[in-house]
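Dear colleagues,

I hope this message finds you well. In preparation for our joint manuscript, I am sending the Mannosyltransferase (Pedionomus torquatus) sequence together with its predicted structure, so that both groups work from identical material. I would be grateful if you could confirm receipt.
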Amino acid sequence: PGWASGSGAAMWARGTWTLLAAVRTGWCLLPQVGYLHPDEFFHFFLFLFFSSFIGDILNLQVHYPWEFLSSSPCRTVVFPLMTSGVAYWVIKSLQQLGVCSSCINSYTLLVSPRLLFTVFSFALDYSIYRLAPFWEADPWKALVLLAGSYVTLVFYTRTFTNTLEGLLFAFLMVLVSSRKADRSVAEPTSSPLIGIVTTAGFFNRPTFLAFALMPLLYWAGSIVDSQKSIKTVINHFLKLVLCACFTAVVFVTADTLYFTSVGLDNLYSIKNSSLFDVIGQLHEKMIVTPFNFLSYNLNPHNLALHGSHPRVTHFTVNGIMLFGILHILAIIAGFKMLKKYIYQLIWVKLYYRGSPGQLGHSEGNPTLLLFYFVPLAFLSLFSHQEPRFLIPLILPLVLFSASQNRAGKWKHIIIIFNVFGALLFGCLHQGGLIPCLFHLEQLVHSLEPSNHPRHYTLLFAHTYMPPRSLLNMKKTDTHIEVIDMAGSGEETLCRAVGQQVNNLTCNDCHAFVIIPGTVRATITKCGVSFKNETLIFPHLSMEDPPQIPFLFSGNWRSQLGLYILQLDRDQ
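The corresponding structure tokens are as follows:
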């Protein structure tokens, strides 16, 4: 009944969207424990340690990703500063004002930037509501389809650059899509904003150009069609180019100040220099992060370091993994439209000797399919293909699926698919690591005599890279050591564990091994004993998946758990 027409269906859709919006916000605050990818933490948590101009925000230890090192700057610092940096500044200010005595903890460090991104995610809903009438889709059905997608619930509430890329793509589509009251296409008037958004998206992720290509071509076509004067057309393009150049200057200046000694090591000397001296230094050491990004990623050897995939992975695997039946329906519709267009083109040329303009109107909207498949095709040119690279495509896909009620007959499959995806990626996938860090943060900061601090060694094995920021370690905290063994083999792991046992020479020295239950047996072969074991449930490691027979045994919880093992110094 929810997919039927009528006022009752509209009320059902509005109520469903409201419920899903509440779930999105509440699940962020709960919080979500699924760990999707290290980039969530290491691309935006960088500004826990941001020290250019504004001083330390939280004075915490963080791990610098290679993209943010001054030797290889490939990411802009503007967006992390404007998002996570602002969120952390707020919680620090609240603590300094005495609003709360312990505002800075592992929970707030995780949730505050996520909450900001969750608020931003509703811009996607607004874009769908604005765009649906333009693309002949029902607004509320499209909103339910968007809000019910696990991509929105999980990915768009996380601090990924891909999330910002999707929001900027949505904003760009709104800017290029407008109608008059009589439903005719309105004259585009947003040239400056289009230039700003396109440039900002390029600096956030240079792959944004793949998403922006079709909207920009659509906008250019609308400009040419609606203008009779070549002077007016040139004026629109000049406004776009000038605003794009100004935005680029802002990003380049900010990145240069941060990544070079101009902005960090010689900050105080700059204050005593003339404006022309400062400009001269900036010009000499100018950093354009997107060009560095492209230079690195266009090298196949560099991409191979991060994992190489077949060129069809986005089409055949990632699209289905993210969007399920909607991706398959889009492919089928695309082939049908292409087949029909080619057939009609041949028919007109051979029998009527006319032009393609005589082609009949095809079912559906081929422009939306181009908005979906053109970026997909460009991203498929690169050998490194991760599912999250495609999350901006949810906007044109939802609009296409909501038009002509394409998704209606598949609603049960869509619901089951998204519930499964939300549980898998929002709860299970590496789901024990964040609760583990919450537990360890309380442990290492427990009350103790200040003249005899305890020393903690935390050894992580066969997990994703642990975000050290969630341990809430100050830069002066030298009594906490984090060792990331990644996916080390049995021999290397046993050697490291044995070394930690030998280092337990004081009464206040403690060492913990954090390892998934699926490789728990590896530790037993190392010949060490443990005096405490803590099981964090659930935790699913796709790199070390559980064996199916064990999931139906009495030991199934250990296969879906993460162990915190305290080494015994008295063995």
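For the figure legend, we might mention the following. Strands lie at 455-460, 480-484, 509-516, 530-536, 562-567. Residues 1-5, 49-56, 262-270, 354-363 have pLDDT under 50 and may be disordered.

With kind regards,
E.M.
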